[in-house]
Amino acid sequence: MRLSPCFTEIQDKDMPVLLKNAKHELFAQALAKGMPAIQAYAVAGYKSDRGAACRLSANVSIRARLNELLEKAAQRTLVTIERVTTELEEARRLAMTSEGRVGGGVGFDEQGQAAQTPLEVRGNLVRQVPGVAPQAPV
After folding, report:
1. Is the C or the N end of the chain the one with fewer CB within 10 Å?
2. At what angle do helices 60-97 and 50-57 cross, to 10 degrees?
3. What is the rounded CA–CA span in Å between residue 28 and residue 135?
4. Higher pLDDT, 77 or 39
């Protein structure tokens, strides 16, 4: 695999691709956390300079690393949503077999039906994650 000279060599495909310049890496990570460029620039150890922060944020290597970090965060969020969906389904099944479900109750209507199915909850959660397209139900 050929990498830009701004990237370190990959030891293992599961290892993150870090920028060679430690300040650039810190800058990209701070941007990924949602910091404005000027604040991320200072966090990375640079003197406050709005113009330089703007230029660095447009750097191709910084943008590539930022996209990688955001993609990983989106995937972790989807995994969490999948886990929550599974737990909700288990809780729904348990509630359906318990005596407390009959005649309504918290989260159920008068006929004992769940207010939202776990898949509806999952869809609502996924729509709230920026940059993530909803996937087909599992």
Report:
1. N
2. 70
3. 28
4. 39
